[in-house]
Amino acid sequence: CTETKGFSAPEIKKKLSLRASVTGEIVLDDVRLPGSAMLPEAAGLSGPLSCLNEARFGIVFGAMGAARDSLETALDYAATRQVFGKPLSGYQLTQGKLADMTLEVSKGMLLALHLGRLKDGDGVTPEQISLGKLNNVRGAMEICRTARTILGANGISLEYPVIRHANNLESVLTYEGTTEMHQLTIGRALTGESAFR
């Protein structure tokens, strides 16, 4: 409950990323709650961590949405931008960038769909969700950076969505678990050794 003594959530202002949403810091200063405030059927951190896994699962798809929009913007821009008498899309380096971005969007979407099918079936593990979030956010960031280069100086203009996606993905990289946390989660699954402590 937000009226609980010791709880506060001061808003973070002057953001360059995730500007469309209100972001706040959660401060718990010697907060005391009754037993009735516990999540039903949750033991230890299982309740909050299962919520985090749901959010992370959504990011696996959301990151690819930003990547796909950036790719589609770059494709449209390259087709209409005339450079030395022909469309920018007619040049080898541009086509190489577009092909690589398409490859990464396709791989990311296949990974997201696979994780979704696992989730609908026998279940998806937290390690698999970490793999999806880590891969798809990294891939989406690189796609946005590449799309921005195709747009040239227009790549930093809010007339196009690419720089907004890139800025937002900088935050997505660390929220719902940092890159390092996901690397250690995957590492623990691979080795059986926990490097968290």
Characterise the protein shown here.
This protein is mainly alpha-helical. 58% of the residues lie in helices and 4% in strands. Strands 1-2 form a two-stranded antiparallel sheet. The protein has a two-stranded antiparallel ribbon with strand order 3-4. A hairpin with a 2-residue loop joins strand 3 and strand 4 (86-87). The radius of gyration is 21 Å and the shape is globular.
What are the key terms here?
197 residues; mainly alpha; two-stranded antiparallel sheet; 4 strands; 4% strand
What spatial form do the alpha-carbon principal axes imply? Answer: globular
- Give me the side-by-side strand order of the main sheet: 1-2
Element order: H for helix, E for strand: EEHEEHHHH
Which band does the percent of strand residues land in? under 5%
Mean pLDDT: 93
Class based on secondary structure composition and strand pairing: mainly alpha
Q: Report the count of strand segments.
A: 4
Largest sheet: 2 strands, antiparallel
Helix content: 55-70%
Roughly how many Å apart are the termini?
A: 31 Å
- Taking pLDDT < 50 over at least 5 consecutive residues as the criterion, the unreliable ranges are none
Tally of contiguous helical segments? 5
Rg: 21 Å
Blueprint (SSEs and pairs):
Blueprint: E1 7-8, E2 27-28, H1 46-80, E3 82-83, E4 86-87, H2 92-120, H3 126-151, H4 162-172, H5 179-191
Antiparallel strand pairs: 1-2, 3-4
Q: What is the gist of this entry?
A:
The chain is mainly α. Helices cover 58% and strands 4% of the residues.
